[in-house]
Amino acid sequence: MVRKTMEVFWTRLLKPPSGGHTVTVPFPHHVDPSSVTEPLGKIPSHGSRASLLGGSFDPAFRRGGGFRAREGYANVAPASKPGGMYMPNTHWTWSFAIVTLIQTLVTLGLECYIFANFQIQEIPNDSPSSKTIPTFLALYSFGFLYELVLVYDALRMKNTIQVIGLCICNIGLLIYGAVQVNQIRTAVSVLADMDTISPVVWAQSEPFLIIIPCIVALGTFLMTFVAWKLYDEFAWTIYKHISADLQMKRRYLTYQIYIALLKFDFFFFLGFTVQFLVLVSSAKMDAEFALTVAAIPVTIIILVCGAWFVRRETTAGMVCIILLLFAAMGYFIFKLFRMYDPLTSPQYLPARPSMTFFAIITLVLIVITIINACLCTNNFNRGLKPHINKKKNKSEEKTTELSSNLTQVPSRMMID
């Protein structure tokens, strides 16, 4: 009797009214659907209301789409495509990128004018002084372009250490710009005595050569200020990546310093080598010239392998890299000795101040790189490898489903 009464109650309650389309409502678990002789009742669904409980139509609600639509979530496309090219996405990352870009464009424009003016008025000759100005200007321009690449890489990887290193590197470019003034004055003076260039070239170039260090000094100040702001911004990213483990954060910091040093080692080694090949050894193709040319690809391989071994935590590989870095340190000490040895110093005179600057900076970087390589090797097998080798989570590569596709959570129960 009770069972029959329940069946009648449900069938009358769920009886469809005239008009409107219907949606099937599941039967309660305590009623046996097989005992029902009439079709199950249906509830009308009206397009003008989001719920039978009242209220206006909710524009976030969409029919279809399975569970997500039934729960009232709106399907919104992600803001950006996963795996796309990195773009600065905060006020300070944009500021750092814009400051370095403007600095690069202005200095490149001035360097190009000086180079063109020199090339137009010079009479071609084989003097080492004739190669000094083009080499300095080309190397200086390459320095700013390489720095711009490292800026993009530092912002993309949110590498605080590399950002700080870029500010220090900019100070190095500032010093080199100041050294460049005296070097070009000397080269123009030598060429003027040889009647291969007019002394007017120096008067035309000097104001621009003085402006360049001033612009770099201003850029260094602005980069340092923005880097201070980025330090706080990137600190949260490192915290999320490594967690609050202080020991692990120190190991990760050592790893970041080591990777950044390898990138700067490449530029200063290349700068020294190019000056040596063009200004010193270009006149004589001896064994030293051949070894210096061969050292360029070998150095690139060493730096790439140094980064690869530390990521894979290969102890034997890191020991080899450290030994090779000691060999590189001995090479630069030998070059410094030859530059100031009375027997060999004359061949280095056209570029000695600039080469000395690059050699000293490279030596300092190699010493610091060796120390950090030893620290990184000591940190092997202590839990850092998964952090530096793991791929980005989907939540980091693209916005998650809950964060991007769900515009709002329904505040009331909704019945389809």
Can you tag this structure with a few keywords?
single chain; UPF0658_Golgi; transmembrane; 2 strands; transmembrane helix; membrane; 416 residues; TRP C-terminal domain-containing protein; mainly alpha; 2% strand
Walkthrough of the structure:
By secondary structure, the chain is an all-alpha fold. It contains 13 helices and two strands. It has three domains: 49 residues, no CATH class; 152 residues; 134 residues. Strands 1-2 form a two-stranded antiparallel ribbon. Helix 4 packs antiparallel against helix 5, helix 5 packs antiparallel against helix 6 and helix 9 packs antiparallel against helix 10. The radius of gyration is 34 Å and the shape is globular. The C terminus is likely disordered. This is TRP C-terminal domain-containing protein. Keywords: Membrane, Transmembrane, Transmembrane helix. InterPro entries: UPF0658_Golgi.
What is the CA-atom radius of gyration, in angstroms?
Answer: 34 Å
Strand content: under 5%
Structural class based on helices, strands and sheet pairing = mainly alpha
Global geometry: globular
Number of domains: 3
Uncertain segments of ≥5 residues (pLDDT<50)? 27-31, 33-65, 76-80, 392-416
Mean pLDDT over all positions: 76
Summarize the helix and strand pattern as letters: HEEHHHHHHHHHHHH
What's the helical proportion of residues? 55-70%
Give the biggest beta sheet: 2 strands, antiparallel
Tell me the distance between the termini.
33 Å
How many beta-strand runs? Answer: 2
Number of helices: 13
Output the strand order for the largest sheet.
1-2
Keywords: Membrane, Transmembrane, Transmembrane helix
Organism: Penicillium arizonense
Protein name: TRP C-terminal domain-containing protein
Region (Disordered): 391-416
